[in-house]
Design brief:
Length: 331
Amino acid sequence: MKFSMHMSTRINDKKDELSLINYMTDLALEADSVGFGGISLTEHHLHENQGYQNSLLFASALAPRLKQATLVLATVNPALHHPLRLVESCNLIDQLNGGRLVVGFGSGFKETDLIAFGRDLEKRHVLFEDGMRTVVDIWAYDGTGGPLEFAVGNDRGKIESAVNPSSFRKPHPILARGTLNDAGILDTAAKGWAILTAGKSPEEAKKQFAVYNKALDAAGHSEATKAMSRAWSGVGKAVHVAETDEKAVNEALAYFKKNPTGAIARRPEDMVCGSPETVTRLMHEYAAAGVGNMITAFLIDVEDRSALKRSFRMFKEEVMPNFAAKSTVAA
């Protein structure tokens, strides 16, 4: 099991915006330097002041500076993007990061995103499915066989040549889907993509991954496709490490009191939270459940970084060495 650092936080004061963006950049570069396999970025627009909002632009800024980590878009909602622009953006990121990009599609959980971009809330699921299908069609289009015309909601277009730049990895970056239900898991396995989920416990993750792996094996994909998909199939968990379980829980509680919207979790019991020994044990349980990529969201407090710095240091020094996988799957 590899680890990815998830960049998701909130900011309450506009004066801290640049400081937070710079701090998350520094965290991403440090995570890359110590062997985190991925840097995970999310997409929320106008939602509780998400620090950087535009994950595609932030990924483009990070990509040339990463030495080995894969960028994981966890997740990007195709319902919010013109499909051609989304393909162009992902291809550029994939080129800049040498094929180390996972594009995870997700339908989001906030209506404010859809409203902000003028999307019809009653068609949110149709827009998501149509958008996801269309970007895959655009990636597959090589400019032959006539023009490719498409429509996703009010976004329309026609292309007669392949997108430039193309993705570094052909015919498209590594693809994934964020889903919590069996129908989504089965559809993702049928496509040969990775799944991104949020199992609250190792037991729940084990059930989800059992469904996924059985369907992936039955779908007739190549061994290389199955290996890549399993390697990047992940669970997102908020993480905090301290010298003792009690101290870790108390610090998490203090963080949530100050930042009630949290980072993935809202309560310590929904996290991987505790001493290095406790965190290591829980991570081994997730690895045994079939998780290939543990997406870790540390508690980022731009006003008081001491607890985060210690938590991150203990994680990289006392937890990560217990796991073999630390980098990317070879292209």
